[in-house]
Give the backbone structure.
Amino acid sequence: MMTKQEYLSSIDTLGHRVFVQGEEVDSVVRHPISKPAVMALAETYAQAEEERNRDLYTAASHLTGEPVNRFLHIHQSLDDLVRKIDMLRDMGRKTACCFQRCAGLDCINAVYSTTYDIDQECGTPYHQRFVEFLKYLQAGDLVPAACMTDAKGDRGLSPSDQEDPDQFLHIVEERGRGIVVRGAKLHITGGVNSHELIVMPTRSLAERDKAFAVAFAVPADTAGVTFIYGRQPSDTRRLEEGQADIGNVKYGGCEALVVFEDVFVPEERIFMKREYPFAGKLVELFAANHRASYGGCKVGVGDVLIGATAAIAEAQGTVKAAHCKDKLAEMILLNETLHAGALASAAKGHQTAVGSFSVNKLHANCCKLNITRFPYEIARLAQDIAGGLLVTMPSIKDLDNPRIGEYVRKYFVGRGGVESEKRMRILRLIENITMGTGAVSYLPESVHGAGSPQTQKVMISRLADLASNKAAAYRLCGIE
Ligand code: SF4
Ligand code: FE
C-alpha cells in the first residue's frame, strides 16, 4: 500500500490537465484552492498506515490475499459492509468534509458485480477484464474516481434525441482494438485527486441509446481528458495570508467537470459496450452502494458539527440552558438515525451472483432520503445555538491589528475567560460546515450526491412490498 506521502507525490507528478478558476494549474497538491481536497483524500492513506486502524481501514484482497486499503476492497461479507460505513464515519469525523475516495469504492463494487451479470447473459469478457484492472488498482493502491453523471442537456429528451449528442457521453467510433468516446461527466468527486477514471452510464437506456451504454476506465492523464474544478462558497479565503478565517484549517472536498474530448479507450479497459439493458442496473447498484455510504460520511461530519456546537454553547455559557440541551439531543437523534439507516442497509445486505456483498437497496435509499433532510435541521440547530455572531463577527485577522485587536479580544471573550480567538475559531468551523466550503459537502451534496431526492422516492416506491402490506391489512380486518 502507498503511504500518504507517496500518494501526494503520485498526484503531484500525475500530469493531468486541471483548470482552477480560469487558470491551468501545475499541481493540485500545491495549489491553495485544491490542496485541502487532496489532503482530505490523503487521509485515507494516513489512516491505513496506522497499526491500530488495520481492521477498519484495510482488508485482505479476495483476488490475491494481500492486504489492501479498504477503499479498494470488494465486500466479501455483511461485516465488510458494516465496516465500510464505520470507516466512512470515522473519516467524516477526521475531515469534516467529503474525503472523496468512497465513490470509487462503491463504483468498483458495482462494476465488479455488473460485469459478471453482463457476461452471464451476453457471453462478453468484461468481468475478467475488470478483475485484471482491479488487481492493478489494488497492487498500486490507486484511486479510481467514479464518473457517472452526464450533462443531460434537455432532461425531457432521451440521450439519442438530444440536439447535441455530447450531452451524454457516448461512443463516437470503433478504432483498432478500442473505442473513441466523447462527452463530459459532471460533479465528479475527487476527480482531480484520482489516478484513474471509471466511467459508467448515467441512466437506464433503450436500444436506440446503445451508443451511450458504455463503461470503461482510463488514467487521469489520458489525452483528451480535462478537469475543470468546481467553485465553492468562500473558497478564496484559502488565498488569504494566514488563512485565518477558513474555518476548517486542514481539509475540504472537491468536485470537477471532467471533459472527454475524443478519448481513446483500449479494449482491455472496456467493461460495457452497447449492452444497454445493463446500464440501468449498473446505475442502480452503484447508487444503492453510495446512498448507504452517506450514512457514514455525513454522520461523521455531523459528529464534528455537534461537537463544535456543544463547544460554542460551553464557551458562551448557554450549555446548561434546557433549550440548548434539548437542541443538542435533537441533533444527536437526527445524526444517529442517519447512521442507523446505513447500518441497517449493511446488516440486511445480500450476496450478489458473483459472490460479493451488496447493501439492502430499500434501506440504502431510505437512509439517503433522510440525508437530503436531516443535515439541514442539524445545521439549523447549530446556527441557532451559535447565535448571530456566526455571521457578524469580524475577521480573526483583526486580533492582530494593534489598533483594534484589543477591542475584538475584549468583546468576544467567552465564559470563564475562554480566549476570544478560540471562540472565533469554533464559530468559523460552524460557519464552514453550514455555509462555507464545508457546507458543499454537508448540505447540497447531501441533497444531490448519489442522486437527487426524487430518485430515492422512485426507488423506495419500487422496492417497497405494498402487496404483502395490503395482504396483512386484509387478513387483520377479516377480508380474504
Ligand atoms: Fe465519500 Fe461521502 Fe464524499 Fe461520497 S459524499 S465520496 S460517500 S465522503
Ligand atoms: Fe458524494
User: Anything to note?
Assistant: The chain has two domains: 4-275, 282-471. The two ends are 61 Å apart (CA to CA). The chain has a mean pLDDT of 97. The first strand starts at residue 17 and ends at 20.
